[in-house]
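Work package 3, deliverable 3.1, input record:
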Amino acid sequence: MTFEWIQVPYALATLFIILNYGLLMTAVVRKLAARVGGRPGIPVWQNYIDLVKNFALRSKINHGVMYYLGPVFRLSGGIGLILFVPTIYGSSWAQNFSFAGDLVLALYFIFFGTLGMALGAGESGHPHSAIGVSRGLAQVTTAELPMALAVYSLAIQYQTLSITEIVAAQQGGLFNWTLFTNPLAVVAAMFAFVGTMMRSPFDVVLAPQEIPIGPPTEYHSAYLALMQTNRAIFPIAKTIIYMNLFFGGAANWAEFAIKVFLLYMIPAVIGVVHPRFRVEQSIRFFLKWGLPVGILAILTV
Amino acid sequence: MVSPVLIIAIGLGTAFALGLLGSSRKTLQFGATLTALAAMSAISVIWLVALVTGAAQTAEIHTAGAVPPFAINLRVGIAEAALLATVTLTGLFAALSLRAQLLKLGRGGMAVLLVLIMAISGLVMTRDLFNVFVFIELIAIATAGLVLLSEDPRAVCAGFKFLVVGQIIAILLLVGIIFTYHANGSLNIDDIAATPVGVQGAALAMFLLLIALVIELKTFPANGWALDIYTSAHPGFSAVFSAATGSAALFIVDKVVAPAGAEWLPLLTGIGVLSFVASNVVALRQDNDRRLLGYSSVGQLGLVLAVIGQRDVLGEAYLYVAGGLILSHAVAKAGLFWMSAMVRGRNLDDWAAIRARAPMVLAFATFIAMLVGLPPFPGFYAKWDLAQALVAAGRLPVLALILLGVLIEAAYLFRWFGFAIKREAPEKGLSANMVDCGITFAAVIAGWALGWIWGAIPGQHNVLATLPMLAVLAFFALEPLPAKIKNVAAIGALLGWFTLVFGDYDPMRLIFAVVMIPGGAVILLASFTETGRRIGFYPSAMAMYAGLALLLEATTFFEFFAAWEIMTIGSYFLILRGKMSEPHALSYMLFSLGGAFALLAGFALASGGIQPFALNQLGTVGAELAPWVFVLLSIGFMTKTAAMGLHIWLPGAHAEAETDVSPMVSGILLKAGLFGLFLMLMELGRQSLWGVDLTVVLAWIGAISAFLGAVLSIFQEDAKRLLAYSSISQMGYALFGIALMNHLGWLLAMMFVINHYVYKSMLFLAVGGVYKRTHTKLMYQMGGLITLMPFTFVSVLVGIIAMSGVPPLSGFGGRWIFYNAIMDAGLRLPLILIFMAGPVGFLYLFRLIHTIFLGQLKDPHRQLKEAPVWLLVPQMIFVAFLIGFAVLPGMALQKVDGYIGSIFGDQPLVWSGRAIASEFGYWNPVAIMVVIAVIFVSVFLILIAKNHDAQKVKQFNIVFSAERPYRPETTHFAWNFFAPYRKALGFLEAPVVTSFWGGVTDGLNGTAEFTRRFYNGNGQSYAAHVLLFVVAVYLIAMGGVA
Amino acid sequence: MRDIHALLKQRHRLGPLEPRKGGLAFVTVPRENLRGLLLELRDTHGFTHLVLLTAVDWMEDGLFQLTYMLNNRGRDLTLGIRVMIDREEAQGDTIHDMWPTAATYQRELKEMFGIDFPGSPRLDEEFILEGWTDLPPYRRDFDSLAYSQQTYAERPGRVTHDPREYMKSKLYPDGV
Amino acid sequence: MKDVDDKFLKNLDRTVPLREELRPRKVTTPDGQEIEIEPLKDYFCEAAPKVHAKSYFPIVEDFYNWARANSLWILGFGTGCGAIEMRPLMTPRFDAYRYGIQWRPTPRQSNLLMISGYLSVKTLKRAIRAYEQMQGPKYVVGLGSCTINGGMYWDSYNTIKRLDQYLPVDLYIAGCMPRPEALLAGFMELKKLIKAGKCEGANKYAENFATYKANQKSVIKDWDMPDYNW
């Protein structure tokens, strides 16, 4: 697959859809959580308002170059992740720029935003930012491990690293999904999924109680707006990857919307009913439960 | 041509003539002595030259006009001549070194010295047993005389002990001679062979002869009597005692045993090896320099004795090996004793005094290298041939013991050298004067000359004659120049060499060559920051680079091994230059030597004694040997790549080295090990031992190193240690890649060779620059340096992005190849560790950049300047390269890919334009770079549009729960950065390996401590030792013979 | 309680015991006896708990009264020990080595009454009054109202009434 | 009912010295030369607050104000008894979230400061710092009579009586204490003001910065912070 200029507007369109979907869906999820608690909850368009409000802030401060670039890295990471992954299977225009690289690219590009964010937060000079980063990085080392193993077992199963081909291999019926052809890998991957969605019980990174929300402590105004945008996009992007790898991808936007929503609900539900882990607890958790499943996955495939 | 008898004649004559001179005219007497000695030396040297050049034949001199056995006859062959030269010259120099003493003592002393030298020469030449006895008596008496003549009370009692034991020896010898005469009516050595030794009496006779001569060698444990002499006598004399007497005694043993027949050899071997290992172990605990030298002499003599014991397998190489060892021992020991005459203090660390004089250090280094048997000295060649012969004859245990002994010897000698370089020098610790320096340097020159000669002997590869080594010698000559000029020269030399050679390398060698030679030049740019003359840096550095260059040039085992050793020595001296690096340099040296010996054994095993053996014939090794060769070689190479278990030398060595040395030893030196592994696997391929596939073992080791290296690295507070541990991890990746034994795995390893060189050198230089400014390596003491050191920050940033494998920089290429490589590899379990090592690596990298450059700036650092420009230049070059390499990986990899394809016969990667496709996935670096750049810029523009007017605030303008920060120190979160990680996985940093190696060394020292008790300084017990020794040996030996 | 008082009387110069309702009683000791008394109470009579340490300002007699309230949990007795100290160079003896909590009380007394307790840890660190420049506010010669009027801006229109007069005027507007 | 005694005069001539960590100090750099550190200059930004103009197009400004009104992020800074009254707002019974109100743990991200009760001088200092660290436009709501006229602390030696002397208050909610219903009503009121563009507290503070500072410093004797806490 090669590049034509027409792909640029296509990609932008995809991006636009996903952004709005992300903003609405996160709001809906929060509303659901509120209803569970017997509250009316926020209006579904609240995210848009907050976004506008933050863009409209009048006075801003700046802690230095990396601080300034941090959110840029963050959002670029999210957008890039979307653009490097084909969104809709078989759609002529939602393939984005997936010709640039395969699954490996997607997996490692996830770290792009994290790194930039960490550096930006670091330069703000706030100890809480550094603490949050240290916690987050420490947790991700083991949280991503089952995912890596699952991906490996998947790649061996399908003998390819190209996402498109993996999705293609899952077409033609529910039971061609990896979920059924390679359940162990999916379970392992789900550990990583829940662990990296920044929701309880694994959200000690931005623990609003002990450390006022960690890395973004010093961020505000447009910086914060960019990060909010990313927080709308990035989970969707990750969910898309999981959907493509394990749940047969999506052949049209409706299927996309449903699958992503359901997948997104998994960590949400778990988060609503679980208290928070300390970092070393979650590390042990992943080593004790996630890792063995992952090992089984790569041994049995 | 003058008759060699004159040597004896002159000696005796002058000795008597001295008596005629009035006792008052000391100077005249001294002059006479010197002249006599000079004459003797002259004669022997003339003979040596004549014999070597073939101008003369081996001469038989019959005294009293009758033929043996009715008269004593002397012989002068090459060996004799060489020894004579050594002896007489030693005597001459000894006389010079002893001048003060001699002038004080007067003619008595001089006469005794003359007689001693004369006797030793006679011992060398004579072919008659009784004559041997006479000369030995003379030697004993003369020695005792010389020792007793000095008024040091300890010397007196030492001399007395010596006499006592000397008499025991004499008696044994005499009895032996009588028996021999009884057994075969002749005292002529050559006749002994004529009669069968099977006769009980003759066997006993021979035993007594040998044991007497062996004890004369002061073999362990029957040597307490002699050691006191080393300690107490004047070093000038000890030199004679160690060099001349010892060599002569060895020679006589050889003379006697030659006719006696092969069944005596095992006895000698046993005694020799025991003596060698044991006295080296004891020497470990000595703190008096002369006593240490004494033990070392005993050890060396033991070694040669063992070699004599191997004469049956050595064949015609026998003279070469034994001679090499004896001569290097004689020269080095004499030299060291003469140096110790100049050092005032008697403790090992008093030798720090010599640091003031660079030539002295050179001399010291030369002698130690000669003793340990490092190139380019004769001992090295001898060791190599010895190993070949031993393995060929299947005498591996002997080889193992000898190598062990050498390792221990290296341990205390290099520890001593470390003291000399690193400990603080005592006031006026050095009493240097023209004469002593003169004779010392005569020894140095003799050493190098011998090195040349031993190399030049046909059938050998002369290490010194190679261009790189000549360059090194040239840099010795350049030392007086200022550092900057030498730096230009060094860079020129490296680039010049590269232009000479790169034409005829295959792509893989070429990559290594580029990393090692021009790569070294780039790092040398950083050395322009150094001012002054920087004595000692350039020879060492160039020695290392010469080793690397020769390593790539090597075609035979020997060349490879020599290059390896040279590289090791050079890097050792480099590392030793660091401020706190004394212990680390030592452990580096020991591990390297251990690895080198593993290589030596492996090569010998592979070649089976055939010399020279080409590297590319490694594949032809027999199937039953191949696995063992594999094991030995990979141990050797993995010591260099610091694989887990053999890694403990690395962190200290790399962290404590100088700013511009760390990148050399980390970025470049480690690659030598990888190069070796490549060669080995290319030739040997997969091997399995007891059904275990050894490459799988390698893969596991690689994975474990990759993981544990990373984990250990995140717990470091010292920036350079952090980087050092990360090197272990990175080399682990490379090792894993190689061990995958498939095309992409090797490509991955090559990628790591390039990437690791670039970003590790870059990071070490950056951290070094920070260290230059902040004077600390502890990260938590820094912070907020980003605005003060922007360039350094940029290079660290690029470095860690590349290293962590995040797109778009070149590290990602490595990861991509890695995934494709593991797809068709059978290994799965080790992957778990590798997968985990990735994110863990991310941890320590972030810590590195955060705690140094981000966070809170500290009071004392507020006005720091950016790192020196010459440190930045190479960094910026690296940054540019990393980005270029990220966009166009093909420029370096495509050729290598093709080459590896020619090895494995497959071609998994398709290079179409800028895009790369494998059978599993695809990778388009340009597209990635462009997409990311476009997104990044557009988002950045949005932010600028909104926040261009943001108010720039200072470091304490942070929300602090409505309080304000107290001090930057209390606000910077840096120390123990990953505390939760330590809570969860801290158990992984338990120092298991370190404690293991610590246990080994403690064990050795314990043994030494125990053994030295045995030397209680009491003459009677020493005599008892001797007798017990004789009896014990008798029981063992005759049990074997009869 | 009385038995303890009787016992203590033999060794310490105690004033008379003034019982109150329940297990509460007060006794006055001279300053030099305080320490020994407290020690004995704590170690032998089980008054292990320092309930509070506070002061009363007897401005007219030029005295400060320190009250150490001790409690015996086992027997549910509370003994208040009064020490009168001079108001001019107001100085007490620190007991933070017996009850670490005392250090905090003494810090507060130092801040609020200006009573010094040499040797008490962190005594001079301000407790709640950061940068206080005036008299210690709990001394009776410090007028809180005047101070606040001279310091903190009033909002105009605030009136205060004497409750009695005010209610009268409300209930009996015609003043009957 | 004690009346003021006119003999008492507060002590005016004593001043509080600067805190130790804020005094200029000498440190030696790694290369050994002495340098002078002035913490207040070197570690804190000295710039004064700026007056930020409204958006050029009124319609845009109205749109922005609407957004601001519907996304009030409260700084979780509870003083006095009112802190207790604010908690119920998060519970199902009142649920302030439905009005776009939520609590943020850091001043940088919040734009509404609730002074929920009496302010002792010590707390006032923190409140000012927190307020100045918020990014404009930002709003202050005073809760209860203590913030209005001192309330029951009318004669306290350590409690301020008028919040608007020290911070630009946009809205007072009367009561002692006002119940959550009153708070909600107050929020609605505030929203109206914001939408009407009447809440320019931040700019007012910047304009009359000198007066505010003077008032604050007249109360807070140990002003151990920069004049404006960015």
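Residues 127-158 of chain A form the longest helix (32 residues).
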